[in-house]
Structure formats: structure tokens, C-alpha cells
Amino acid sequence: MSEVGGSIIGVRGKGSIAMSECKFEWFSAYVGACLAEWYEGVPPVDDDGDWVINCVPGTIWVRAEMRPRWAAEVFAYAAHGVKPRAAALREVNDLNMRLCTASVYIAPSGTVTVRQRLVAAAVDGDTIGQAIASVGNVAEDVGMLMAGMFDGHAPFVVDTADAEGT
Fold first, then answer.
1. 153: part of which helix (H) or strand (E)?
2. Which of 18, 102, 107, 149 has the most CB atoms within 10 Å of its CB?
3. By the 8 A CB rule, do 88 and 106 touch?
């Protein structure tokens, strides 16, 4: 680091990468704290390091992303097995034109994903909660639509109380 005209200028090198990773660990912990505020406790973490929110209609994941810019990413799988043909891709384009905060993607494997990214400066308990609600609602609606129209299936979570008959 050097100081020029009262401003500190970072020099790219091994030290700056380590500092950036250290700061990113802080950001990741902050995302977890915001989730804990919204979730009323820390949600479980999967093998990839993503926080897992199990809810109806399916699982929603939250992760802290470092690239291309720091952000919290909230995503869910809306459907699987959808053939990415022209009609399905047109439907995804139409959906994305109407959505305000979330985006819908279809992978070559046929997985339809709903995602919302929150830039680091926008992350707090309220925005995480809004993103989780938005992604969950869109995934539920889009999953049933895409599965029904394009021969896929929508993921779901079994309610353990219903499964046990209580």
C-alpha cells in the first residue's frame, strides 16, 4: 500500500488477495447474521457452505458470493426435467420481462432456477427476507407452470407433521 495525495492506493499482489478474502469472510458472516435475524436462528449449512431454508414448496439456498461483485444470492430450483426447447426458453424470457426482483434461468440439464442477487451494500435482514419470499413465491408458481407445460416435475418438501399423521 502506498499513500498518494492523502489517499491510500492498494497494490495488487498476494497481500491484497489475502486482505480481500479476510474482508469477504466478514461479509459472509454478516450475511449469516442477517439470515439469523430473519430466520430467528441460524439456518443449517450444506456441504457447499450455503445456508439452507426448507419451506414449502421446496428448498431455498442463500450464499455469499465473492465474484463478480460481493453479493448475497438467494436461489431455488423451480422445476427439473424441463426440456430447454424454444417454447420453454420463450416462456423464461417472458417471465423475466415481468419479474421485478427475481430472475428465472433454465439450464441445458432441464433445471429451472429462480435467483435473486443482493449487492453487498443492500444486504440486511429485511432485504434477505424479501429475497427469500420473492424467490420462494416465484419458484412455486414457475415450477408448476414449467413442469405442467414442458413435461418436467416440480420439487417439493414433505411436511413431516402430515407424513406422521399428526
1. none
2. 102
3. yes
Going by the DSSP 8-state scheme, the letter that residue 69 receives in this structure is: S
Cβ burial, residue 142 (10 Å; 0-12/13-18/19+): buried
Asked whether the bond before 108 is cis by omega within 30 degrees of 0, the reply is no
The identity of residue 35, as a single letter, is: L
Helices 86-98/125-149 angle, 10° precision: 150
Task: Give 19-57 pLDDT, tens digit per residue.
Answer: 567 788 999 999 999 999 888 788 999 999 999 998 866
Q: pLDDT by residue (tens digit) across 86-114?
A: 999 999 999 999 999 999 999 999 999 99
Using CA atoms, how far apart are residues 128 and 118, in angstroms rounded to an integer? 8
Measure the CA–CA gap between 29 and 95, rounded to whole angstroms.
Answer: 33
Q: What's phi and psi for 3, nearest 5 deg? A: -110, 125
Show the cell assigned to 25. Answer: 469472510
